[in-house]
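Bumping with the actual sequence this time:
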Amino acid sequence: MRGSPFSKRRLMEDHIVVDVEIQKTIEETPGGWDATDKLGVACAVVYEFISDRFRIYGPEDVPALRQRLLLATRISGYNIYRFDFPVIWGLPNRGRMEELKSKTNDLLQRISIDPNVCFGKPCIRGTRIWVSLIIENLAAGAPEQEILDAYPSLAPDDIKAALAYAAEITRERVIPTAVGSK
């Protein structure tokens, strides 16, 4: 069963998933999204694969939460490297916790926005493949494998990253649609 997701090595790995809720809203915090040092941890939840249980950390538990993250061998989550970690460590301007970078598989790290590449449109890092192109193909019913075959430089996690980015954008911007149930 070498390489199987259920291999003994995989089960013994200290893989956790973390999510943080903040004490203050972005709107009420001067500096908004970049004021990660002022947002504060209201609650953090860590799921531990090895023990198959959840742990909940409150504001008074932040030192223990930091220690737990440092001890983990792999950390998953959404935008954890650019947002959750800076909030947990109280770092301004979305400061980075470099010692945790190699442990994370934060999907948004796969997205790049460069004004000199594709007119600044969000692309899969290291390519000129627009995130919107992937989303449009998925919306049109194209299977993931068809997209991967059409764009050999893409990996399955790039498609997940495009979906994660699209989900984040919908939190920030409202597109007018028809109202009602018909």
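The tokens above came from a reply further down the thread. Helices lie at 8-12, 36-39, 62-71, 80-89, 98-101, 131-139, 144-150, 156-172.
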